[in-house]
Design brief:
The protein is mainly beta. It has 2 domains: 124 residues, no CATH class; 314 residues. It is built from 2 helices and 52 strands. The strands form 6 sheets. The chain has a 14-stranded parallel beta sheet. A 12-stranded parallel beta sheet has the order 3-6-9-13-17-21-25-29-33-37-40-43, with no helix packed on it. The two termini are 50 Å apart.
């Protein structure tokens, strides 16, 4: 049978077309994944299914009246306090929704009730919902805590700001209860130092959770919120603290997912530097083991010679830390991104670490020490600023399948062990190259030697990363409602592929939320750089997503 040259040529074209399509699919899949993950993050306006409630009540500070109102849309009450006590004994089959119209509510600390959902973001006229257009503000005035949670309730669509607590939980306290906390902006709230702080004594008990504190058997769902500029004066967890065992049936986990943590600080008044205020963004302690997934954790700080500007873990806590962006966080002592110690054992998997650092020169991204344990799997750990990338000291770790490159001030992975009661740690199948002071360094080994095998300490020839960029910015415009800054370029028109990429402008790090034809939008306030903006180029890190 004869085959014509034309048919052969068509077959060849078809073959290469398939190869090209497969190559494009391989290249574009990581970017599509980053776009999809980023689209899930942060608050949004969710519709409310009226069929799920036996009663729907209405509150409007502008048009309501607690004396003459009846809670209807035409005759709303003026205060949330009135609505919270209006229904007798709500139950699972007799649920209540309280729709709260735009305006500021600042009378007292709100005590949530089971089976009563608080829903903000409504127009006082039409009762249409848009949480950004119709801002419903719960304001503690820096005089009181804003909310106390309960089981079987939802807090959704509010600006929760200026809380202050003389105990735990500056904005919200969940003490043994598990509300659903979604689509809120939790801002500028804090916990006060306890009066019994002792100078010269390390690791004291402070007041935890400048934004939210979850204590003992609290397993809330905390999703799609923004935590910005919350702090503790003395205590762990500037943004969020999860503390204490869970003895509930099935051992459920708290869920911390699709949130943004920016500019939260722990230990602002730990003037004696007692190492008592770790976890600038999140702290997990005493068996607390939440799921921490798909969050942006950027530019948070731990002060008072404390650890982990990003996430802190201790005392048998085993959080699952999955698929987060952990960038530009600062620890005053060690572990700028994550620190785990004292039998904490997190799973740290498929996260992106960049630009984290410590004031004292400790390791930038991850430290495991003081009988801490960790499983560090499939992360991208790049361009952290001090002490190298990962430091494993006096504990047990499994570190597999990570990319560790271009970290400053130390080696990619350093290992030290004096304990003999731990089984050997494992450092396997990692790509570690181009770090300032070496790749994998064992500097002390008095216990059982680690298993170090199948690591690649030079750049793989098949590692094809989309390049980084250095761009000039013409304008920065911050939107306080969305807590995002739009950066417009002087010259550049290829921004469409930058969603999910990590950026640095001056000393501030963030992540690209969305793009325009000649602009990008990032999480956080970059407008505050003011007139110095044009002096700094915008550094866009390479696209490491293909190896994430």
């Amino acid at each position: 049978m004869k085959i014509s040259a034309q048919k052969i040529l068509k077959s060849v074209y078809a073959f290469f077309a398939v190869v090209l399509l497969l190559a494009l699919a391989t290249y574009s899949a990581p970017h599509a994944r980053a776009v999809g993950e980023m689209a899930k993050i942060g608050p949004s306006t969710e519709s409310v299914d009226a069929a799920g409630y036996a009663h729907i009540l209405h509150v409007s500070v502008a048009s309501g009246n607690d004396e003459t109102g009846n809670g209807s849309s035409k005759r709303p009450w003026a205060s949330i306090e009135k609505a919270l006590v209006a229904v007798d004994e709500p139950t699972e089959n007799n649920k209540v929704a309280i729709k709260v119209a735009e305006g500021t509510y600042d009378r007292s600390t709100l005590e949530c009730r089971p089976f009563v959902d608080l829903l903000g973001g409504y127009s006082a006229n039409s009762w249409k919902r848009d949480i950004f257009k119709f801002e419903t503000i719960l304001d503690g005035l820096h005089e009181r805590r804003v909310l106390v949670g309960s089981d079987n309730c939802r807090i959704d669509g509010f600006v929760i700001r200026r809380g202050r607590a003389f105990g735990h939980g500056g904005a919200i306290l969940c003490d043994g209860v598990s509300p659903v906390i979604t689509n809120n902006r939790i801002l500028d709230s804090y916990t006060v130092s306890p009066p019994e702080v002792r100078p010269g004594t390390f690791h004291q008990a402070g007041n935890r959770g400048g934004g939210i504190a979850c204590l003992f058997d609290a397993v809330p769902k905390i999703k799609n919120n923004i935590f910005k500029d919350n702090w503790t004066e003395f205590g762990d967890g500037g943004g969020l603290s999860i503390y204490g065992w869970v003895r509930l049936e099935g051992r459920p986990r708290a869920e911390v997912e699709n949130n943004v943590f920016i500019g939260n600080v722990s230990g602002t008044k730990d003037i004696y530097r007692t190492r008592s205020s770790s976890g600038g963004a999140i702290a997990c302690s005493h068996e607390a083991s939440p799921l921490i997934r798909n969050n942006v954790i950027a530019h948070n700080r731990a002060m008072g010679r404390s650890d982990a500007g990003g996430i802190y873990c201790e005392y048998f806590s085993s959080p699952e830390i999955l698929n987060n962006w952990i960038v530009g966080n600062e620890g005053d002592d060690d572990g700028g991104g994550i620190y785990t110690m004292r039998d904490g054992e997190p799973l740290i998997k498929e996260n992106f670490f960049a630009g984290n650092w410590t004031t004292g020169g400790g390791v930038g991204a991850i430290r495991v020490s003081k009988e801490g344990r960790a499983r560090i799997i499939g992360n991208v750990i790049v361009r952290n600023q001090t002490g190298g990338a990962v430091r494993l000291v006096d504990g047990y770790s499994v570190m597999e399948g990570n990319l560790v490159t271009e970290n400053l001030g130390g080696p990619g992975i350093s290992y030290s062990q004096v304990f003999t009661h731990y089984q050997p740690s494992v450092i396997r199948d990692n790509v570690v190259y181009g770090n300032e002071k070496g790749e994998i360094v064992v500097d002390r080994d008095e216990g059982e030697s680690p298993i170090i095998e199948d690591n690649q300490e030079v750049r793989p020839t098949d590692l094809d990363l989309a390049p980084g960029l250095e761009l000039s910015i013409r304008e920065a415009s911050f939107d306080p409602g969305s807590v995002q800054t739009k950066l417009t370029f002087m010259r550049y028109s290829g921004a469409e592929d930058l969603v999910g990429r990590t950026v640095r402008l001056g000393t501030k790090w963030s992540v690209v939320v969305s793009t325009g034809s000649k602009s990008i939008t990032v999480w956080g306030d970059f407008e505050s750089l003011g007139q110095s903006l044009t002096q700094f180029p915008l550094i866009v890190l390479p696209d490491y997503a293909s190896v994430r």
